[in-house]
Specification:
- By secondary structure, the chain is of the alpha/beta class.
- It has a single domain, classed as 2-enoyl-CoA Hydratase, Chain A, domain 1, CATH 3.90.226.10.
- The chain has 16 helices and eleven strands.
- It has a seven-stranded mixed sheet with strand order 1-2-3-4-6-8-11, with helices on both faces. A four-stranded mixed sheet has the order 5-7-9-10.
- The protein is globular, with a radius of gyration of 20 Å.
- One of its GO terms (biological process) is L-valine catabolic process.
Length: 360
């Protein structure tokens, strides 16, 4: 096995025969994505795309997290001094990496052991093989910090084949643990965490020129029993309220008008989120149903660009800077969200996102 980066790098690249291995290497930061990781991964993947590499394995150091998201504090701190370009540049290149992985011409296998949230979802959920363990913890919690389930969430979430489930995940930030990830179609396989080294060796030793479907079938021997979906008892309610809601306001008010314990709990949770983020997410997922992979990322870049100028810095301030957990959202309620505000987020911008520019 040959290393192409040093052990001190935030991401390591190895080649084992004809298999490329990407290892996120910031375990103390729960392998959070930062700009150096993104900048290092993209050209390496391009090299492997054009070389004799047969497949790619994506994994992480440490046992706690695959990737807990983007380094959001570093993203937003410059905005307090009026610098929005730094964050925008990160989003642009992060989405380019996500798009690159999602369109990679060779099979990519993501070992999503431990925490996988936000940016960690972006680099894994678009790959064809996503292997969880009993210790996997998935969430897209962005509406609680003034963002939205980005990194291609507008493509991935509405295509989860459980009616309304993607919108439910995106709006509420609901967590999925272990086997629930496979029930919820976040992962394609679930294995025991003590078999991670074994499955990596197995993937390296597989014959060449296998397609993703063939690799997926081959690793079924590692699949463990996933039992019953822990949210099985909630699926009817999720479909009832989240499958075809007419509007965000109507959705929340219908939940609030119910006397059911589940409805009241979900409504209270939604009321605690950024109203702007909820409105963005609602439209993002509704529109994303009928958009191409490319167009979703183009839309999400526009949204992220605007979030840096609106609620995102405030959400991060409340959570990670001042730690008062009392974000001052503006507007303060979903009922106050105007069509003109939403137009500000969704309208086309001259500085459009492109899957490679300015990198190509």
């Amino acid at each position: 096995m040959r290393f192409t980066r040093t052990l001190r790098d935030p991401v390591k690249f190895q080649r084992a025969g004809n298999v490329g291995i990407v290892t996120l290497n910031r375990p103390k930061a729960l392998n959070a994505l930062n700009h150096p990781i993104v900048k290092m991964m993209r050209p390496q993947l391009k090299t492997w795309e054009e070389s004799g590499i047969d497949r790619v394995i994506l994994k992480a150091e440490g046992g706690k997290a695959f990737c807990a998201g983007g380094d959001i504090k570093d993203l937003t701190l410059p905005t307090y001094n009026g610098d929005y370009d730094s964050g925008a540049n990160f989003f642009r290149e992060e989405y380019q990496l996500d798009y690159q992985l999602g369109t990679f011409p060779k099979p990519v296998i993501s070992l999503i052991h431990g925490v996988v949230m936000g940016g960690g979802v972006g680099i894994s959920c678009h790959t064809p093989i996503r292997i969880a363990t009993e210790k996997t913890l998935f969430a897209m919690p962005e509406t609680s910090i003034g963002l939205f389930p980005d990194v291609g969430g507008g493509f991935f979430l509405p295509r989860i084949p459980i009616p309304g489930f993607g919108l439910f995940l995106g709006l509420t930030g609901q967590r999925l643990k272990g086997p629930d990830c496979q029930h919820g179609h976040v992962s394609t396989h679930t294995i025991s965490s003590d078999k991670l080294a074994d499955i990596e060796k197995f993937l390296i030793d597989l014959p060449e020129n296998l397609c993703a479907e063939e690799i997926g079938e081959a690793i079924q021997r590692f699949q463990i029993s996933i039992g019953e979906f822990s949210l099985a008892g909630q699926i009817d309610n999720i479909q009832k309220y989240f499958e075809n809601p007419k509007s965000l306001v109507e959705l929340v008010q219908e939940l609030e008008s119910s006397t059911g314990e589940w409805e009241q709990k979900v409504a209270k949770k939604l009321r605690s989120m950024s109203p702007t983020s909820l409105a963005i997410t609602f439209k993002q997922i509704q529109d994303g149903k009928n958009m191409s992979f490319y167009d979703v990322f183009s839309m999400e870049y526009r949204l992220a660009y605007q979030c840096l100028r609106h609620e995102f810095p405030e959400g991060v301030r409340a959570l990670l800077v001042d730690r008062d957990n009392s974000p001052q959202w503006n507007p303060a309620t979903i009922e106050e969200i105007s069509d003109s505000l939403m137009q500000t987020f969704f309208e086309e911008k001259p500085n459009a996102w492109h899957p490679t520019k300015p990198w190509e």
